[in-house]
Design brief:
Blueprint (H helix, E strand, L loop, with lengths): L1 H14 L14 E2 L1 H11 L1 H22 L4 E11 L30 E15 L3 H67 L5 H36 L7 E2 L8 H10 L10 H23 L3 E13 L18 E11 L4 H71 L4 H35 L3 H5 L3
Parallel strand pairs: 1-4
Antiparallel strand pairs: 2-3, 3-5, 5-6
Helix pairs in contact: 1-4, 1-8, 2-4, 3-4, 4-5, 4-7, 4-9, 7-8, 8-9
Length: about 475
């Protein structure tokens, strides 16, 4: 009689269990999606590295502009040695010292002192556009570095959103599985009472016990995935405290918000402003600038050159070797200036080879741009297909939940009446569990498919502004 009095209340409590009434343990540290993305933007090392690369590229632009400056070298030296010279010519090869003075009949071992100070100016007066090409290439590289940062940041927002939505899904699934374990525990207690009083066979309690263990194993496996996802979110965001929770309110999306999200990501084309496409396009533009730079680099160069120098020597005009101190004073002064046009005739061959190499590299990068555009367009089409399929599935979820709840209620009543066996009851319980997990899966799939489309058609920022 006790069982009969208590049974209706317990069964009603189980049947009234509904996924929409889930509550989660409140923690002091709840992290929203926007907060996670902002934290990653500040702390993710790869983004910091990209920022430093931008600064390096901007410095390279300043360096390219400074290449236009002339070179002005100054030198002063004090020498001690011999001064023996012969008639004839030779190539200095950059290492043979110059000896000036009269030619004597025999070698003279006397030592002289001398000094020389020189200032030498060299300026590329005209290089047929090389300076402009050098600056343009540096600016193109700076643009590519900025585009690389933007694409990395864009991809990071996408990755964090994916992890966050998956974290949300597994957070809800763990709650469902805890409720499932609780439901089986309740059934087990009543079945155990039935079998203890001889109303039901003892095997029923064994079956119920096995279902409890199976439900616990599923919970442990889901919890493992959930904790791994938390670890992954900590990796991206730099969060140190692992005792945080997520905003599960994202799960309860009203139809009006879903329609709004669909509208905001409704663009059906991949625009050129997509950060991923911008990055690949910037690489192509940089390759083009390098091709132009190579062409300009092998053209003739017109130099303005000038020099001023002063010398002193302890050797007198009559070839007398005087005191060393006399060689430390400047006694002769000279200057010279002029124009010099230089061109290596074999540069025509080198230019052809280098340009051909860079040309094919540029073409390869251009095809990568096309490939990325095709990938994004395909992702957009796939997302549209998935969104429609998920919305169709979402329409069936209320019917599935209601039918599963009714089936479990009916089988529970039939089991109590002795009409249904334990296998039928556990099947009904699993049917309810599956309906609850399907509801979570549909919501998760909807968020992820909308996210995929937002990434493809460059509405990601608009999409994320809703969370």
């Amino acid at each position: 009689m006790y069982l009969k009095r208590c049974r209706p209340g317990i069964i009603t409590g189980i049947v009234l269990f509904n996924i929409c009434t889930f509550s989660f343990a409140q923690t002091a540290n709840k992290i929203g999606l926007k907060q996670a993305i902002d934290s990653a933007t500040r702390n993710y090392p790869l983004l910091k590295a990209k920022q430093h690369e931008i600064e390096s590229a901007n410095a390279a632009v300043r360096g390219a502009k400074d290449e236009r400056l002339p070179s002005l070298n100054v030198s002063d030296q004090v020498d001690l040695g011999t001064a023996n010279s012969l008639s004839g010519s030779y190539f200095p090869m950059g290492i043979i010292p110059s000896t000036s003075g009269g030619i004597s009949a025999e070698n003279n071992s006397n030592t002289f002192s001398g000094n020389i100070g020189v200032a030498y100016l060299q300026h590329e007066l005209y290089n047929f556009g090389l300076n402009q090409a050098r600056i343009a290439s540096a600016k193109s590289f700076a643009n590519a570095s900025k585009a690389d940062y933007d694409a990395t940041s864009y991809s990071l927002q996408f990755q964090i959103s994916q992890v966050y939505f998956d974290l949300l899904k597994y957070r809800l699934l763990t709650n469902i599985q805890l409720k499932n374990i609780e439901r089986y525990n309740t059934l087990y207690n009543y079945i155990k009472a039935y079998t203890g009083s001889g109303i039901k066979a003892g095997v029923d309690s064994s079956v119920a016990n096995a279902e409890i263990s199976k439900a616990k194993i599923e919970y442990i496996q889901t919890l493992e995935i959930y904790n791994k996802l938390k670890s992954e979110l900590m990796y991206y965001t730099g969060i140190k405290n692992k005792d945080f929770d997520i905003d599960t309110g994202l799960y309860h999306l009203p139809n009006a918000l879903i329609n709004q999200l669909q509208l905001k990501v409704s663009a059906d084309s991949v625009g050129s402003s997509n950060p991923i496409l911008v990055y690949y396009s910037s690489q192509w533009e940089y390759a083009l600038s390098q091709e132009k730079l190579i062409k300009k680099g092998y053209l003739p160069k017109l130099y303005l050159v000038g020099s001023v120098w002063m010398r002193g020597s302890s050797i007198s005009p009559t070839d007398g070797y005087e005191d060393f101190s006399t060689g430390l004073n400047y006694s002769r002064y000279n200057y010279m200036g002029g124009l010099a046009l230089t061109y290596n005739l074999f540069d025509m061959v080198h230019r052809r080879d280098k340009v051909a190499t860079q040309y094919f590299h540029t073409e390869a990068v251009y095809e990568e741009v096309n490939q990325q555009k095709l990938l994004l367009e395909n992702q957009l089409q796939q997302a549209d297909i998935s969104i429609q399929a998920v919305l169709d599935r979402a329409k069936e979820i209320p019917f599935q939940l209601r039918a599963a709840q009714d089936a479990f209620s009916q089988k529970s009543a039939q089991y109590n009446a002795g009409i249904a066996n334990i296998a039928e009851l556990t099947d009904a319980s699993y049917l309810l569990y599956r309906a609850e997990t399907d509801a979570v899966q549909v919501q998760s799939d909807l968020l992820n498919t909308l996210l995929q489309k937002a990434v493809a058609n460059n509405t990601l920022n608009t999409f994320l502004s809703n969370f």
